[in-house]
Amino acid sequence: ALLRLQVRQIEQGRFRQALITVKKDIALPDGKQKTLKPVAASGFSYPLARDKKKLLTKNLELPDQIKGEIKQGQRLGEMQIRYNNEVVGTVDLVSPVDVAKRGFFSRIFK
């Protein structure tokens, strides 16, 4: 899977907290770095009984590639979290680092 939504127990099993891990790399054809793995800009919590974990789904909206310079914290996409097919949260996915654009000659002679 390109995306994993982990759920762990908190507060003595009464609620569940979702931890977001993105496994998809975005290609950076113009960057000094070839790929970038986005991170969640914030956490996500939703009250959830243990036996309802399977009703949580997620929809990832990320481009396959981004051209140009990337700034740390720049929004790259988003993830929608659904419970029983109803959107219960949206989390922005951002760049964890700055990625400079390669110079003209290094782009030509890659």
Provide the fold topology.
Elements lengths: L2 E8 L4 E8 L3 E2 L7 E2 L2 E2 L3 E3 L9 E6 L13 E9 L2 E9 L9 H5 L2
Antiparallel strand pairs: 1-2, 2-6, 3-4, 5-9, 7-8, 8-9
What does this structure look like?
By secondary structure, the protein is mainly beta. Helix content is 5%, strand content 45%. It contains one helix and nine strands; from the N terminus they run βββββββββα. It has a four-stranded antiparallel sheet with strand order 5-9-8-7, with no helix packed on it. A three-stranded antiparallel sheet has the order 1-2-6, with no helix packed on it. A hairpin with a 4-residue loop joins strand 1 (3-10) and strand 2. The longest helix has 5 residues, at 104-108. The radius of gyration is 17 Å and the shape is elongated.
Describe this protein with a few key phrases.
110 residues, mainly beta, four-stranded antiparallel sheet, three-stranded antiparallel sheet, 5% helix, elongated
In short:
This protein has a four-stranded antiparallel β-sheet, with no helix packed on it. It has a three-stranded antiparallel β-sheet with strand order 1-2-6, with no helix packed on it.
What is the helix tally?
A: 1
Number of strands: 9
Stretches with pLDDT under 50, minimum 5 residues: 7-18
Structural category is mainly beta
Strand order of the largest sheet: 5-9-8-7
Order of H and E elements? EEEEEEEEEH
Shape call:
elongated
CA distance, first residue to last residue? 30 Å
Helix content: under 10%
**Oligomeric status of the shown chains?**
single chain
Reported for the largest beta sheet, the result is:
4 strands, antiparallel
Kindly report the average pLDDT value. 79
Radius of gyration: 17 Å
User: How much strand?
Assistant: 35-45%
